[in-house]
Design a protein that fits this description.
The protein has a single domain, classed as Tetracycline Repressor, domain 2 (Orthogonal Bundle), CATH 1.10.357. 74% of the residues lie in helices and 0% in strands.
């Protein structure tokens, strides 16, 4: 469906979510007023309530739009092939590498389209916001558990049970940090981390980083 064919109500809802995503990332839930979101979206507050019943509902819609696609990307890695016969080792490793690389690419593409989601999560973490537990329990914990389930599938898993949470945490830092700390990285390296060529470079780095992590763990 082209932009011209998108129903106006759907287009308006997406515009509201775009504005809310940015303001929530900057100010948090408590510091963001519905009237400010409405004004920047070109609406009145009563008009906004035609699309969302309140600020909390809008906040949860922003989180859902930002984080659910990440879970959808990672979940098949956890459940796919759980009961299937294993391919020969070399073929199995090659398929796992390609599947993992495709998932990393998908995560980067989604966060590049919604960079404020990473900043919103960082804001809640830094401030201990009231919504932090909701973000963790409703969205991030299922993603982490999916990642750990994927690690557990193989008998020759690189990471021990004790190391798995740290391995997943490292990936969270590397991936979210690229977006949440974009202003710092821009100042430090003189390039825009959100530019298309930098996103593609980061994808290649993440694939290489994954390979190095696996080799290092296997050789210990």
């Amino acid at each position: 469906m082209s932009e011209a064919e998108v129903p106006e109500s759907e287009s308006t809802r997406e515009r509201i979510l775009d504005v809310a995503e940015r303001l929530f990332a900057q100010r948090g839930l408590a510091g963001t007023a519905v009237r400010d979101i409405a004004r920047e979206a070109g609406l009145t507050a009563p008009s906004l309530y035609n699309h969302f019943e309140g600020k909390q509902a809008l906040y949860e819609a922003v989180i859902a739009r930002g984080v659910q696609p990440l879970f959808d990307l990672i979940d098949p890695l956890a459940v796919g092939g759980a009961g299937a016969a294993r391919a020969p080792r070399a073929a199995d490793d090659a398929m796992a590498d390609e599947r993992g690389g495709a998932i990393l690419d998908g995560i980067m593409d989604h966060l590049a389209a919604h960079p404020d989601i990473a900043r919103l999560i960082q804001y809640e973490s830094l401030t201990g916001g009231a919504s932090l537990s909701r973000i963790v329990e409703g969205w991030l914990r299922p993603i982490v558990e999916a990642g750990r389930a994927a690690m557990d599938r193989g008998a020759d898993s690189v990471w021990t049970e004790e190391e798995q949470p740290m391995a997943v945490a490292a990936w969270i830092h590397v991936i979210l940090g690229h977006f949440a700390m974009a202003p710092l990285l821009r100042e430090l390296f003189g390039t825009d981390p959100l530019a298309k060529e930098q996103i593609e470079r980061q994808k290649r780095f993440l694939r290489r980083y994954a390979q190095l992590m696996m080799v290092g763990g296997a050789d210990r």
